[in-house]
């Protein structure tokens, strides 16, 4: 009985293994067949010519030649299909990628005259031409001329066509009477004709423009962020550009405004900057100040890397007041000595990161709003040279919501609701070349940015999960906790008396700034904060 059961179990396991093997084999064969069909479709002329040749040979009675022609027709399809199915990466690198790029280049070169004409880049003029020839007349020949009207086209010169990865680059020189703006205006129809996902124009010289067509969208796949290890001050790597190159955002000396509707992925950029600076925070050369007006849900996850956190408008005003005092003290110290602040451990770069700026500048009571806007405007106007920079995220870019929009020196447009919003965020005329309002909701973290040279680029931020943020916060905690001004009436709420508390647990030690010591004992000057009483526990406890 027992041996029967064991035998039945063995045969059941065998049957399951056989079924699994069969399923895998069928799947593999289906994938090979699909790849072979793709290959045949891409080389249809080659296949048809050889099949035709094989048929002719067979009709002529040459069996062997006919078989060889068929092997030549379908052999490469089979080899490519097996290669592509089993080793897709090497197939793409060695075979499919170079062949595809060569096809793009050939297509542009071959069709340039047609493309340029259809995209409105060429002009034509009609001229009369006269042809001369010999005509017979009464037995003798004489020279006769014939006049006809011909159309002569003049195209901009296609100087070079290059490819790299999924990019097709066309270097175009204007024809006489044309401007680079004409070339840029034709980039959209050129991209549509080439079936490109996106495009951008870079002006190389006063008469040469490089049109970069993105033939395959490399931003469709979300990519998780990596825990930063090196100390970078000037810039952080936020994700990738549409050509696959890393997307670096300059932090030092810039105030950054991130605009995107709900769910557009502002969190990725917020954490890309804050977590990207975390090693520098731990080293003591950067100090992060967090204002999270979504009740602290965003900053709460990685609170450890912040020196100070505010989670409601009242706390935010207190935090801004404190930061402004740091800025003023630094300004007094720098006056007449240096013009641009250089971050050091004793004198770090201060980064104020605000999530949901609108709560502070539009959706709170009038007095708090006014005070917050005043403080923020001062920080924005004076901070750049004094080593205090701002990163602010907001959903609604309208002037009545973000009145300080013009004081930010760089903007990132995530998914927006309308072309009008794109214009507000990126500037006049940008809705056509950087259409942030057309970003798919399925691609959160995708944004349009305007480069320093005025060119635009599409980028996608890497994805910061809560777990990753927590890991970064645990790995790179801020060695300093800023004490913020509190109203004397309720001093017990926050760790008063420890202005700059040096954390005992980890990281390099950073001494308190003289300013913070001076301000420690002063009563809070800001009307709204002191009026409303003490900020809650959210402040000062990083
Ligand atoms: N870079 C990214 N890559 C992939 N998915 C992302 C990325 N960024 C965000 N997401 C996804 O989009 C969702 C919304 O992101 P996020 O919370 O950052 O949006 P938000 O703009 O801050 O929205 P809200 O203003 O409503 O808080 C996330 O839960 C996540 O699933």
From TrEMBL:
Keywords: ATP-binding, Membrane, Nucleotide-binding, Transmembrane, Transmembrane helix. Pfam families: FtsK_SpoIIIE. Residues 482-542 are annotated as: Disordered. GO terms for molecular function: ATP binding; DNA binding. Residues 527-542 have a biased composition (Polar residues). Residues 242-423 form the FtsK domain. The keyword Nucleotide-binding applies. The chain crosses the membrane at residues 43-60, 69-91. ATP binds at residues 260-267. InterPro entries: FtsK/SpoIIIE/SftA (IPR050206), FtsK_dom (IPR002543), P-loop_NTPase (IPR027417). This is S-DNA-T family DNA segregation ATPase FtsK/SpoIIIE. It comes from Oryzihumus leptocrescens.
């Amino acid at each position: 009985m027992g041996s029967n059961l064991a035998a039945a179990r063995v045969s059941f396991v065998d049957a399951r293994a056989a079924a699994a093997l069969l399923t895998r084999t069928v799947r593999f064969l289906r994938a090979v067949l699909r790849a072979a069909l793709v290959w045949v479709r891409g080389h249809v002329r080659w296949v048809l010519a050889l099949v035709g040749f094989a048929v002719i040979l067979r009709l002529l009675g040459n069996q062997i030649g006919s078989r060889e022609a068929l092997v030549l027709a379908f052999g490469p399809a089979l080899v490519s299909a097996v290669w592509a199915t089993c080793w897709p990466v090497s197939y793409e690198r060695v075979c499919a990628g170079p062949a595809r790029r060569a096809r793009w280049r050939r297509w542009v070169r071959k069709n340039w005259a047609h493309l340029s004409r259809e995209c409105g880049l060429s002009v034509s003029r009609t001229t009369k031409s006269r042809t001369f020839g010999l005509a017979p007349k009464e037995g003798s020949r004489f020279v006769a001329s014939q006049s006809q009207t011909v159309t002569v086209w003049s195209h901009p010169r296609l100087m070079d066509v290059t490819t790299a990865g999924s990019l097709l680059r066309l270097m175009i020189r204007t024809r006489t009477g044309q401007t680079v703006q004409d070339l840029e205006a034709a980039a959209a129809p050129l991209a549509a004709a080439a079936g490109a996902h996106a495009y951008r124009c870079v002006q190389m010289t006063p008469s040469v423009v490089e049109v970069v067509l993105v033939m395959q969208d490399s931003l469709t796949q979300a990519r998780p962020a990596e825990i930063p290890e090196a100390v970078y001050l000037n810039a952080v790597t936020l994700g990738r550009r549409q050509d696959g190159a890393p997307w670096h955002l300059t932090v030092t000396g810039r105030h950054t405004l991130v605009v995107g509707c709900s769910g557009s992925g502002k969190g990725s950029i917020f954490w890309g900057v804050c977590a990207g600076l975390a090693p520098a925070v731990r080293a003591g050369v950067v100090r992060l100040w967090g204002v999270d007006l979504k009740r602290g849900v965003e900053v709460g996850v990685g609170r450890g890397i912040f020196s100070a956190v505010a989670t409601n408008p009242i706390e935010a005003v207190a935090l801004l007041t404190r930061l402004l005092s740091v800025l003023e003290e630094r300004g007094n110290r720098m006056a007449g000595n240096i013009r641009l602040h250089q971050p050091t451990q004793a004198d770090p770069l201060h980064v104020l990161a605000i999530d949901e700026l609108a709560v502070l500048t539009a959706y709170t009571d009038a007095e708090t709003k006014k005070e917050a806007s005043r403080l923020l405007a001062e920080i924005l106007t004076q901070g750049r040279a004094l080593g205090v920079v701002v990163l602010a995220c907001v959903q609604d870019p309208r002037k009545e919501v973000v009145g300080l929009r013009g004081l930010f020196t760089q903007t990132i447009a995530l998914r927006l609701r309308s072309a009008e919003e794109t214009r507000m965020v990126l500037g006049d005329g940008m809705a056509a070349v950087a259409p942030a309002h057309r970003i798919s909701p399925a691609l959160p973290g995708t944004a349009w940015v305007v480069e320093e040279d005025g060119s635009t680029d599409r980028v996608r931020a890497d994805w910061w999960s809560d777990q990753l943020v927590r890991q970064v916060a645990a790995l790179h905690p801020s060695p300093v906790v800023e004490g913020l001004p509190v109203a004397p009436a309720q001093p017990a709420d926050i760790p008063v008396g420890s202005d700059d508390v040096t954390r005992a647990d980890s990281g390099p030690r950073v001494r308190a700034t003289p300013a913070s010591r001076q301000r420690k004992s002063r009563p809070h000057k800001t009307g709204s904060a002191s009026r409303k009483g003490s900020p809650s526990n959210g402040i000062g406890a990083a």
